[in-house]
Design goal:
The structure is a homotetramer of 176-residue chains. Chain A is α/β, with parallel strands linked by helices and 176 residues long. The first copy, chain A, is built from five helices and ten strands. The first copy, chain A, has a seven-stranded parallel sheet, sandwiched between helices. In chain A, strands 8-9 form a two-stranded antiparallel sheet. In chain A, strand 6, helix 4 and strand 7 form a beta-alpha-beta unit. The longest helix of chain A has 20 residues. The N and C termini of chain A lie far apart (41 Å). The interface between B and C is small, with 6 and 6 residues.
């Protein structure tokens, strides 16, 4: 499928960013891959940070279902992208590119992840991009849990939730 | 062709950024459209700033030949993209996104353009991205012309030159 | 003191970023003001996001002790800065400027705060900038607390800890 | 004077960015140094890209007159700043930081310079920041000179012109 043809995005295409660790254990990579497949099956474009681990697994899954994948890279070289990125954007912004990974999306799906992932969750929440989590960070403040986003164990349910949130957000933006 | 299928990019795909004015007279838009067609016919991805004028015309031309187009937008809304952008990346960086339009490319083709275009030419020249010009800025310093990039009138010759420069640069990067 | 003279920074000057909510209740603003005073008393430059709430209170405190304050603003207008910012840098990067607030610092002190603050904590942790918290976010993953940074209630202790962490980091950087 | 005291900036303080080559011949460095002195004598803050050559010379001149200097660096390390930078902001944005050097200023003074300097001139012109040139780039398009900014040989006249342009721009912004 890699070099075949695939559906081109249109103005209605949904963009889903999958964020997670650049180095991730097998189980997380399998989850990310399943997420990638489901995102592609829904006809959405998969955006990520373009590197390895969770990002690579998500792109791989999307590719397996003929989806289109974008990698927004921290460095200046397109060759930093994992082999399942279709379109690599080398930003040269370092970690500041995390803000772009979030801005590019109608919704963000966080799969586990480290502090970089936490920054993407937080940037999404602070700029109104909906977030869905799978086995990722939990937040609290002064001992009080802050339930800022929905969490799921099942990739299928998580992707459905993310797509629903993305659709709602689009409608809000279009509303007069 | 808009909603059809098209070749997916691979690791060998060349990226060409077309830069020019957001408002451009008919003749410049026709030139940009011809450039877009030629870029797509060569199997290259067309990158641009995503807005109107030259950018829109270039994307339109690329679409007419089944090419893939990326718009790296200054604002935060994907809907700012012209209708011929396949993949819109809203950066929210304002004019600082000009650096990203340049970084994303193996070579830049400047079609006429205003000061924003001049900044993209200059950013490309200062970071080693080859530039080809069509009816665009001429530079001199203390009365001495500075021939920093090749100029052509014919879109066909300009695109061929840009593709050759892009290929040379890739080889240099791959060289040990 | 506002228009008076103050010590100029030198190559050895420490930079401390104070991050927190743009709208903050009185108690948090008082904490931030105390932090600002202590940062200035230590001869450190106070960096922040330049806006209101916690940022303004921290700058105010620093000013009261003759300190120098820098505001790294998300917008393009210097006039967005709070009145206690000495040097305002309008970035026009939106929330992506959070990465710059963190990069500018030898250590970050988080006073309470919302999701933007969380993103700054996370960006600091992911790029190796030490963080100290006062009444701010607590992190956990899959039910397990992640103690990624020290927390204090007393501004005095928090600032001392931040200065010590900043000094250690500097030494590490200078080590061969 | 280096470690002494100097006037603190206020809300009315003017910011002048001096842009030019990171490696510059003696004559250009002397010009930049004279510019730096004059900027400081006028009570303006001197902003630059923080590195060597013209930037260093301008900062040195400003320091000699007790002025305050800001270096907005492309890399992530404050230690990249030249020794005459008072406040170093390591952005980690690479050449995209050129946009920030321009945004920080009420007016830009270009002293000679290479392509990076040209990008700063162009970014200033495209975002409405006034530019004054000394021995720097000349622009034309299709054989027609484009006189987009004033040029002077004498640093004294150039700085006066820049200050006047900065004042006009401020008034425009304040006008209802």
């Amino acid at each position: 499928m890699d070099k075949g043809t695939r559906r081109a995005p249109t103005g209605d295409t949904v963009y889903i960013s999958v964020v997670g660790g650049g180095a991730a254990p097998e189980a997380e990579r399998e989850t990310a891959r399943a997420v990638g497949r489901l995102v592609a099956e829904a006809g959405a474009v998969l955006v990520c940070g373009g590197l390895g681990g969770t990002m690579e697994a998500a792109c791989r899954g999307a590719r397996e279902r003929g989806g289109l994948t974008i990698g927004i890279l921290p460095g200046t070289e397109r060759s930093d992208a994992n082999p399942f990125v279709d379109l690599a954007i080398p930003t040269g912004l370092g970690e500041a590119r995390n803000a772009l990974v979030v801005r590019a999306a109608d919704a963000v799906i966080a799969v586990a992840g480290e502090f970089g992932t936490l920054s993407e969750i937080a940037l999404a929440l602070s700029t109104g991009v909906p977030v869905v989590g799978i086995g990722t960070w939990e937040l609290s403040r002064r001992g009080e849990p802050v339930d800022a986003f929905e969490r799921f164990d099942d990739p299928d349910v998580a992707v459905s939730a993310a797509l629903a949130l993305a659709a709602s957000r689009r409608e809000e933006k279009l509303a007069p």
